[in-house]
Amino acid sequence: MTSLRMTSDLRRQLILGAARRCFARNGFAGTTTRSVAAAAAISEALLFKHFPSKAALYAEILAEECEADPDLAHLLGQEPSTAALVELIRNMVRYFVETVSGPDEQEAQRLRLMITSHLEDGEFARLLYDKVGKLIGPMFVASIDSAVAAGDATRISGDPFNLFWFTHHTALMAALTRLPAAPCLAYGKPDALERQLCEFLLRGIGLNEAAIATHLERELAHVAPPVIAESA
C-alpha cells in the first residue's frame, strides 16, 4: 500500500512539473490538459485521475509556489500576535499593489484569470480561495484573537474568518482598478496607496489607533518582498 501511495505521489509531482513547463511556455489559455499529459508522457485519462481539470492543475501550482515562499514560511512560523497580523495584511496589500504596478506581466495575467473565473464558472477562484484560506487563514484568525487578548483590537461580531476574506477582497478590488494600462481610478502613488489601504483594513478588522501606529510604522519601515500569492 505504501509503495502504491509513493508511486501516486511521484506521478502527481511529475504531472505538476510538466504542467509548470507548459503554463510557462504557453500561458493558461494556450495550455491544454492534452498537452500537459503529453509532456508528462501519460494519457489524459491518467492525468484526470490526479487533477480533474486544467484549473485544478494551475491552482495547485500557484498554491505550491505560495507554500514554498521562504518569507511566507517565516511569517506562518511566528507566534500569532498583533505584529504578525499587521505584517500579514501589509504583505497582502503590497502583493496586490505591486502586481499591477510592477513589470511582471505573468502575475498580472494571473490576476486577470482570477477575475475571469468569477465571471464564468468560478472553478479556479474556488480552488485557489480554498487553498489560500487553509494556508493563511488560521494564522490570521489566531492573530486576531491574540490582538484582542492584548488589548490591541476590539472583537468584531461574526465569523472572524470572514475578516480575512474582507481584507483580501478589498485589496484585490483596489488592485483591479489599476490593472488596465489607463487605471480606472487615480489612487495616487503606490506607496501612499499601500499605507492608506493598510490603515483602512486594520481599522476595519478592529485594531485600535495605538496598535496601528506602533506596528504599521514598524512594518512599513521594512523593505521586504511580498509573500501573499494570488494566490489570495
Give a description of the structure.
It is a single chain. The protein is mostly helical. Helix content is 72%, strand content 0%. α4 (54-68) packs parallel to α8, α6 runs parallel beside α9 (160-176) and α6 packs antiparallel against α10. The protein is globular, with a radius of gyration of 19 Å. The two termini are 36 Å apart. Residues 224-232 have low confidence and may be disordered.
Q: Span from first to last CA?
A: 36 Å
Q: Strand pairing plus helix content: what structural class?
A: mainly alpha
SS element count, helices:
11
Query: What is the makeup of the main sheet?
Result: none
Number of strands: 0
Stretches with pLDDT under 50, minimum 5 residues: 224-232
Report the average pLDDT across residues: 88
Could you say which overall geometry the principal axes of the C-alpha atoms support?
globular
Q: What is the share of helical residues?
A: over 70%
Computed over alpha carbons, the radius of gyration is: 19 Å
In short:
This protein has 232 residues and is mainly alpha-helical.
Q: Would you spell out the secondary-structure blueprint of this structure?
A:
Elements: H1 2-26, H2 33-39, H3 44-50, H4 54-68, H5 70-76, H6 82-101, H7 105-119, H8 123-149, H9 160-176, H10 190-204, H11 209-220
